[in-house]
Design goal:
The chain is about 10% helix and about 55% strand. By secondary structure, the chain is mainly beta. The chain has a single domain, classed as Sandwich (Immunoglobulin-like). The strands form 3 sheets. Strands 4-10-9-6-7 form a 5-stranded mixed beta sheet, with no helix packed on it. The protein has a 3-stranded antiparallel beta sheet with strand order 1-5-8, with no helix packed on it. A two-stranded antiparallel ribbon has the order 2-3. It is globular.
Length: about 130
Amino acid sequence: MKRLSVLTFFLVALLGVPALAAALEVAEGVITTQISDHNPADSVESYSATVGRLYCFTRLTGAETDTKVTHVWYRGDAEMARVDLAVRSNNWRTWSSKALLPEWTGAWRVDVLDADGNLLRSIPFTLN
């Protein structure tokens, strides 16, 4: 009887522990001048200020249900754009874009946030 009680205790304890969820991760994150066939055409950390438009490409893994990420574009510490993007599988590619004016030179970054606003990755680049 004691053995059955101990076994029951461990079974209840084991079933009561939530399964560890896979964490949403940025498997790939780049700034690119073009998206071609759902992939970045290039990956450079410094661009001419006359480029006109850049894309932030992210490949996300670990989503167990539909969720979202947010790309937040910063010039220095000033937020320039915020784009919510759906994530609909455990290996999902998505991107946002930003039109850039030639006078917006300097240090930039795109912060990739999960649905709760947690920072997943920061992707820096420079406009020359």
